[in-house]
Design brief:
3 domains; Growth Hormone, Chain: A; mainly alpha; globular; 79% helix; 19 helices; disordered C terminus
């Protein structure tokens, strides 16, 4: 009996490892490219606004791909979608280093985003269906892999650029892909026969959502120059059309009715959008600033950025215990105030600032990331029924990418054609403002003893 239980636990751990190694590919590749932006600007003769499309299109494809691939995994099988996702990442990682132009590189990154977007929803669904005991712990392990890989991305990218060039950023995916593929092939159970068809998808909803996200992206990128009122009008019109269409659909692509009936959950999504807008503005803005203004090489910039990743990982176990004892709200109050404090401390950075000053400032932002990342995930499930976990998780990831899209638009507007210390300070003020909004949204959360009963 004991041997049988050990065998089951071993298989479950291998399954969790397979999912974790797959799901880290998307967040890792979102931030790993950040230290290569300056090099790509030189290689392809681009401005920062131009190269920001490499970030924006990845986020755009991910925002659309997460709910789309989640639906497909339900319709056609979780193992099948997970394996196809890994194959798409493999294809893009092979082709991207050979890209003959910047346009081709964007195309290969979009394939990478779609492939990696298949891994989180199908992998999390696989864990929920195969692991019954300690399921929360299993989901927490995957979430930690997903969250910390984004924080470590710039540091890993910096080392790769130091010892090679930007193509290594794509080639380094292969150890994770191979390990995840072999484990998934071995331990994932076969998909049951499904009656899912492509026609079961809400394709008009997919098209409307894609068009809406794309138009908002164009509008925010236009803020680097003159404000485009016609883009604003079209974006708002598409948003309303999406709402009216999805609210009346029986199987919507974006479940508007769920958002409408769960006000606390909707506000958590709004807060998570703001959280990621601030976090990714820093994760992409700082490495380019360090290389352009502080004259660091890629490896030095990566080492300095390690302060964010390191402190994020260090505080995560402490945050976990605090949340278990007091709920999500206190940790989020501290985390949001840390965003405000860390952003304002960026104002201390001047031209030719000491590495120690920059490192210490970023440590505060790393602590903030650790508190907010875990706090937001646990806060979500405080207000979600178990039967709603799937849809809530999918929309949670979509809101993450909405925030990252806004961050790339913000950086394009602030850094545009040039990166200077005053531009960094402008970004700091914006992030501090976002932190204040996050704090206000946390304050309005019901206390742990006043939360609505969740089945």
């Amino acid at each position: 009996m004991a041997l049988q239980q050990n065998a089951i636990k071993r298989k479950e751990m291998l399954l969790i490892t397979a999912v974790a190694l797959g799901t880290l590919l998307n967040p890792l590749n979102t931030t790993m490219i950040s230290v290569a932006l300056a090099r790509l600007q030189e290689d392809f003769q681009l401005t920062f606004a131009d190269v920001s499309w490499l970030i924006s299109t990845y986020y755009l494809a991910s925002a659309i791909g997460q709910p789309l691939m989640g639906k497909w995994s339900d319709l056609f099988g979780r193992k099948k979608v997970f394996m196809i996702g890994l194959l798409l990442v493999t294809l893009s990682s092979c082709l991207a280093p050979l890209a003959p132009s910047f346009g081709w590189l964007i195309g290969f990154r979009i394939i990478q985003a779609l492939g990696s977007s298949a891994l989180f929803p199908s992998g999390m669904a696989m864990i929920r269906s195969q692991i019954s005991a300690n399921q929360a712990k299993a989901l927490g392990i995957v979430s930690i892999f997903s969250g910390t890989s984004a924080a470590f991305g710039p540091s890993i990218g910096g080392f790769l650029l130091h010892y090679g060039d930007w193509p290594l950023i794509f080639l380094c995916n292969f150890p994770f892909i191979i390990a995840s593929f072999l484990l998934a092939w071995k331990v994932f159970p076969k998909d049951p026969k499904t009656s899912g068809r492509a026609s079961d998808m809400d394709w008009p909803g997919v098209a409307l959502f894609s068009a809406t996200i794309f138009m908002w992206l164009l509008f925010f990128l236009s803020l680097a120059g003159e404000i485009s009122l016609w883009m604003l009008a079209i974006s708002a019109g598409l948003t309303y059309a999406l709402y009216r269409y999805e609210i009346g659909h029986s199987k919507p692509f974006i479940n508007v009715a769920f958002l409408k009936s769960n006000r606390n959950v909707t506000l958590i999504y709004v807060q998570f959008i703001l959280t990621n807008m601030a976090f990714y503005s820093i994760m992409f803005g700082i490495p380019s600033y360090l290389q352009r203004v502080q004259m660091m090489d890629a490896q030095q910039a990566g080492l300095v950025m390690l302060s964010i990743a390191g402190f994020s990982v260090i505080v995560t176990p402490l945050v976990s215990r605090w949340i278990d004892r007091s709920g999500s709200r206190p940790s989020l109050l501290f985390g949001t105030l840390s965003v405000v404090a860390g952003s304002l401390l960026l104002l201390l950075i001047r031209d030719q600032a000491s590495v120690a000053t920059i490192f210490l400032v970023l440590c505060v932002l790393g602590i903030a990331n650790g508190f907010n990342n875990l706090g937001m995930q646990t806060a979500l499930y405080d207000y979600v029924k178990k039967s709603e976990t799937g849809i809530a998780s999918g929309l949670f990831m979509t809101s993450r990418f909405m925030g990252t899209i806004l961050s790339s638009s913000l950086l394009a507007a602030l850094f545009g054609k040039n990166i200077t210390t005053p531009h960094l300070h402008s970004m700091a003020w914006v992030c501090a403002g976002l932190g204040v909004l996050m704090f206000v949204l946390t304050v309005r959360m019901p206390r742990a003893d006043k939360q609505e009963a969740v089945e």
